[in-house]
Amino acid sequence: MKIAIVTGASSGMGREFAKQITHFYKNLDEIWVIARRKERLEELEKTLLVPVRIFCGDLLHPPVYHELRVALEEEKPDIRMLVNAAGFGKSGLAEDILKEDQKVQLKMIDLNCIALSRMTFLCLEYMKEGSRIINLASAAAFCPQPEFVVYAATKSYVLSFSRGLNRELRPRNIYVTAVCPGPVDTEFFKVSGELENVLKKLTLVKASNVVKKALQDSRKKKEVSVYGIAMKCAWAGTKVIPHSVILKAMTRKK
Known about the structure:
By secondary structure, the chain is an alpha/beta fold. The chain contains eleven helices and seven strands.
C-alpha cells in the first residue's frame, strides 16, 4: 500500500499539501493526515481524491505517535511522501512572551523541532527508493531574528536537519526538501501575532503557490525550496552579508 503522511493537515500549509499531493502522486492508495482538530480533518477528507485515514492527536503528546506506530506495524505501507507541516510561531520580545506564557516557547521548540524529528524517525523505516520528505522550515531560518528569536531558531534547526538528512539518505535514493517561505496567508498569524511589518505584508503569498513550488522542487530532488523573488533575494543576502549587519538593520530605531 502506497501512502503519504501529512502532519498539521487541519489548516494552512498542511491542508494545502494534503490537497495537492494527489496531483503529483497519481497512484497513492491512502493519505494519512494528522492534526488536533478532528472536524477539520473530516472536512478535508470530503475534498480529497483518495481514501483518507485520520489520526487525531497532539504531536506534543505520546498517544498519537503510538497510534501511528501501531498502524505502520500492521499495514507496513510504502510511505512515498512524509510532509512535516505541523508547527507554530510566536512573535515579540522573548522576555515578554515568557511573562505572558512561560511554556509557549518550549512548546514551540518541542513541536517545530522534536515532533518533526520524531515523525521523521518513525516513518523512515517504511520509506523506499524514491520516497520524499518535505519539512516546513521558513525564511526565518536564514538568519537570527529579533522579536522572533525562538521561532527563527527552530526553523534554522529544521533547515539544517533537513539538509544533513538529505545527504545521509542519498544512498537509499530518499530525498529531503526543506521549504522556506516568507509570510504565507494562513492562520499562522492568529497565533504568532498579526502581521504589522509593511515589508512582510508586501511579500505575503498564497499557500497554494508555495506548496505547488515545494512539490515541484521535491520532485527535482532539491534540498531547499524557496518561493518568490523576494525570499530568494533574502536567502542570497544572508549568505553574503554578515548576520551582525542584518541584525543591526533589523533592530535600528525608527
